[in-house]
Write a structure and sequence with these properties.
about 950 residues, alpha+beta, seven-stranded antiparallel sheet, seven-stranded mixed sheet, 35 strands, about 45% helix, about 20% strand
Length: about 950
């Protein structure tokens, strides 16, 4: 069988080689014959071109020879000579001109302007381009200078050059034409009739017909002008032709173009090719006959082999289909040989092993079997397994390096009387993972339900505790109306419990907002130092009550005029510091360290807020769960402090929403360090508008902390201030004194309260005694400077700056001392005699707000819903009300609708009257909705006197500043 195949293969290769060689031979013969015909065509056209060039040279010599005969001739003799020239060569005309006038061969008077062509550039010998002259044929004008300063012009028809040459070649199958080089016009064609030249007018048209664009045509003409001949294959009027172009003479005034059909050139090679094709066909037929005979001989053997092969393939296809359909690896094991006989599909996907490794390395397969059950491979070899068995195992897939779970089924089968094992291996990882995930889901659901149950129980306890206090203290207050001291104490405790209850409710609302994905950021311009001051005022009281040491410091904080959500930043810091105070014992230490860092985005400022305490700390186990809602640490150090477990969860989510990062490190009894990193935009251009007033000032700074000296120097240098520093008080005094006696004294002196060698108050007193009171002195102190305030003012201190030293604090202190005008944030005396419309549907809230405003001698009109407010507003003269305080949720008409009605009214004050929203909804999107609806500001419920006063006066100041600015612009 193999021998027959080898014979067939050799025969096919031999005949194929012969056929290929014959094909190449036919192609080469055809190409050579075509090339020879083309070369012959080129030679014929070259001969034709040479004849035309010879005729032209003879004309030139003849005209040049006769141009010498006109000297001293009279008019009749000149006409005779001209006739001789014309008749000799059948020229069209000859003209003799002297000084621009003359006569032609017919005796007719002539001028230069009457010449068929009179645009010769020089008086030298020259030939005009082809022209269609007065005789109705293509001609050229030959200019030849004469001996007597005259000029001879001869009109020669191009047909003159077809004498003895019909411009045909290749047995008159090829046609030629003469083309003028300058105008590209066809000036002479064959006299033999042909269709090619009947519609062609110039060479450009011919080349375009063949298929060449203008750029290619220019290149063709350049090659011809360089004395090169061009032959190209194209299609003219539907007929495939060879087109040849060459210059007639070296100066390339004329081109000779020849065209011959392709089939004419190939006609001679046709007979030879036909014979070769017959031979080629005969060889192919012979090959087919030989192949048929050989094929017939081996047909029966192939048929038998095919049957065997089909049976084998059917078996393989069945096993492969089973393996593929069931996502299993199937293999056959021959009990007699004790080897793996066949493996089907999925070996790489399921086992991570190549088929060659399984088949050629038995130990690999035996190790796989033993992974299911120890010594399983030995039992297989000993044929101990009789019944169908199932095993399971887990392993690392060597290809994917992932853990997988496998199930093995071993079954006995018999094929053609041979006993075999068939192995089924399936990946059950998905089933195991589903089972595990169901268990985990059930456990998570159980834990979540337990956490929520604990939370509800805890919330119930947390809410009931302040509620019981409020109700109990309210009842005690009613029974002690005649005891002012007790009544005051009861009201204070009611206020504390109310504040605690409000904070609890706010935490729950924040958590709900976060989980629903509706918490938005309210970005605004703010001063970082103001935010930190508010945080300090809240936390310092709590720390003081527990006798804790609470300290705030800054490092490298150069910018503090920012753009972002200040309320969210406050909420983060207060939540974290509340926890620090709550879980730090008495006499403990709590530090807030603020650091400005470089951000990868040059348009953002990066800040790190570190909160460090030495409190009870947290376990490593709890750190893995920290930040999850309702989670709290419970250990022996926990004490009486309790909470809801919501604070850190809220903080982590807010930090994430703000695009920040929070990191918590803690150990039991070792304290906690929380690091929050947030980015803000800079808005210093909006705050430091008067910083040019500080340029050129000299400031002396005294502090025992070198980091403060460096940070403050950088900040003041940004304002254009010259800064000198000292770590010691006495050293500083001598420098200040020396400067005072020089031409450049210091404008302001900034002194730390506590110095290592001398007290700050003593240094200030020394400066006043020795130098005088003209130089402003500003004290650097901690937030609470009440214990030294009286002494400091007594020795001549002008102002105080609280630590940490932020840029804004330094700026406002320097501006104030330079102007000697210290202003309060707001003056609530401005509220006196103002007229306010208060809109509130809740009688209790209405009464509280009205009482608070009347305490500031404000005239208050009230409305119980939006419609009533609109009616009262429209019933009063314009500009009656200075402010409208508008509740949002009211019956009949809500606050948004009422605001819209007021703004749309045609009163003079409809647009400008300030409207302030009063609402318990304090989220950023709620505040923004109020502003979008036409309100000017927002006050959060429950309202306070300070909150109302500050908001109203701030709004009036903004309106005043805007009016002043518009006035300056106008």
């Amino acid at each position: 069988m193999k021998k027959n195949r080898r014979i067939v293969f050799i025969a096919i290769i031999s005949f194929t080689i012969v056929i290929i060689l014959m094909g190449f031979t036919i192609i080469n013969i055809k190409d050579k014959m075509d090339n020879n015909a083309i070369d012959l065509t080129q030679n014929l056209l070259d001969n034709m071109s040479d004849k035309i060039a010879t005729y032209h040279e003879k004309d030139e010599d003849f005209i040049k020879q006769n141009s010498t005969k006109f000297k001293n001739l009279n008019h009749a003799e000149i006409v005779h000579e001209l006739n001789t020239i014309v008749e000799h060569h059948d020229y069209l005309n000859a003209i003799y001109l002297k000084d621009g006038v003359g006569v032609d061969a017919n005796g007719k008077s002539f001028t230069y302007e009457q010449l068929p062509y009179h645009d010769f550039k020089t008086k030298e010998q020259a030939i005009s381009p082809a022209i269609n002259g007065p005789y109705g044929v293509w001609e050229m004008v030959y200019q030849m200078p004469c001996d007597d300063q005259a000029m001879l012009y001869v009109e020669i028809p191009f047909s003159h050059y077809s004498q003895g040459n019909d411009l045909t070649f290749y047995n008159k199958y090829g046609f030629a034409a003469l083309i003028d080089a300058s105008s590209k016009k066809i000036v002479l064609t064959s006299k033999t009739p042909n269709v090619i030249w009947n519609y062609m007018q110039d060479a450009n048209e011919l080349l375009s017909e063949v298929g060449f664009d203008e750029d290619t045509q220019k290149k063709i003409y350049e090659n011809i002008n360089n004395d090169e001949s061009i032959i190209i294959k194209g299609n003219v009027q539907g007929e495939e032709v060879y087109l040849s172009l060459r210059a007639v003479e070296a100066n390339a005034q004329w081109y000779l173009c020849g065209i011959i059909p392709v089939d004419v050139i190939q006609q001679e090679s046709g007979l030879v090719l036909k014979m070769l094709v017959y031979v080629f066909i005969w060889m192919i037929v012979s090959l087919m006959i030989v192949l048929f005979l050989i094929g017939h001989e081996i047909y029966h053997n192939i048929k038998k082999e095919k049957k065997r092969y089909e049976k084998s393939q059917l078996e393989n296809a069945i096993y492969t289909a089973i393996a593929e359909a069931s996502d299993q690896f199937i293999c056959l094991y021959d009990k007699t040989e004790g080897t793996l006989e066949k493996s089907f599909y999925n070996h790489a996907v399921l086992l991570g092993l190549e088929q060659d490794i399984l088949m050629k390395q038995p130990m690999v397969f035996h190790e796989l079997l033993d992974s299911f059950s120890p010594d399983l491979s030995k039992r297989i070899k000993r044929k101990e397994i009789i019944e169908t068995c199932s095993y399971e195992t887990n392993r690392i897939n060597p290809m994917t390096h992932e853990k997988q779970y496998l199930r093995l089924i071993v079954k006995n089968i018999s094929i053609v009387g041979k006993d075999k094992y068939i192995f089924f291996i399936a990946d059950i990882s998905h089933d195991i993972m589903v089972q595990e995930s169901l268990k985990m889901a059930a456990l998570d659901a159980k834990q979540a339900n337990q956490a929520k149950s604990d939370f509800l129980s805890k919330m119930s306890h947390e809410i009931r505790t302040p509620m019981n206090a409020i109700m109990g203290m309210s009842e005690l207050a009613l029974h002690n109306l005649d005891h002012p001291d007790k009544l005051k104490d009861y009201l204070r405790k009611i206020t504390q419990s109310s504040t605690h209850l409000l904070g609890l409710i706010n935490d729950i609302l924040d958590l709900s907002k976060i989980e629903s994905g509706k918490m938005a950021l309210y970005e605004e311009k703010f001063i970082l130092s103001d935010c930190i001051s508010e945080v300090y005022n809240i936390i310092s009281l709590q720390a003081e009550n527990k006798h804790q040491n609470f300290h705030i410091s800054s490092q490298n904080v150069i910018h503090d005029a920012l753009y972002g959500d200040m309320l969210k930043l406050k909420q983060i810091l207060i939540n974290l510091l509340n926890n620090a105070v709550k879980y730090t014992p008495e006499q403990g230490h709590i530090d807030l360290i603020i650091t400005e860092k470089q951000h990868t985005n040059e348009h953002l400022l990066q800040y790190e807020f570190q909160i460090i305490d030495d409190g009870i700390g947290m376990s490593k186990e709890f750190l893995n769960r920290i930040g999850q809602p309702f989670e709290q640490e419970k250990n022996q150090f926990y004490g009486k402090e309790s909470g809801t477990g919501l604070g850190l969860s809220i903080v982590k989510n807010i930090v994430s929403i703000m695009g920040g990062v929070i990191d918590i490190k803690s150990e039991l009894q070792q304290g906690t360090t929380i690091c929050v990193q947030l980015a803000f935009k800079e808005s210093e251009n909006d705050f430091y508008k008067e910083k040019d007033q500080l340029a050129g000032m000299r400031v002396f700074l005294v502090d025992d902390d070198p980091f403060i000296l460096n940070d403050v120097s950088v900040i003041l240098n940004e304002f254009g201030i010259e800064v000198d520093t000292s770590l010691l008080g006495i050293e500083a005094f001598h420098q200040i004194e020396d400067a005072h006696h020089s031409e450049h004294p210091y404008d302001i002196i900034i002194i730390d309260w506590k110095l290592p060698d001398i007290d700050g108050v003593q240094l200030a007193q020394l400066i006043r005694e020795r130098i005088g009171s003209k130089i402003p002195i500003v004290f650097i102190t901690a937030y609470d400077y009440s214990e030294i305030e009286e002494k400091a003012y007594a020795v001549g201190v002008n102002d105080f700056i609280e630590k940490p030293l932020f840029k804004s604090r330094l700026y406002y202190a320097l501006i104030a001392n330079k102007a000697q005008d210290m202003k309060k944030d707001y003056d609530d005396a401005l509220l006196k005699d103002k007229h306010i419309l208060l809109v509130e549907d809740n009688e209790l809230n209405l009464e509280i707000a009205k009482e608070l405003l009347e305490m500031k001698q404000v005239r208050v009109d009230v409305a119980h819903n939006g419609q009533e407010a609109v009616d009262i507003f429209n019933s009063q003269p314009p500009f009656t009300y200075d402010v409208i305080l508008m509740d949002i949720q009211m019956p009949v008409m809500n606050g948004y609708e009422a605001t819209s009605m007021i703004r749309q009214s045609k009163r003079e004050d409809a647009i400008c009257v300030p409207i302030i929203a009063m609402s318990a909804n304090t989220y950023a999107d709620d505040i923004q909705t109020c502003l979008n609806k036409g309100m000017n500001a927002h006050i959060a419920k429950p309202i306070s006197l300070d909150g109302i006063s500050k908001t109203i006066i701030s709004l009036w100041n903004q309106t005043k500043d805007t009016s002043n600015e518009e006035g300056r612009k106008s």
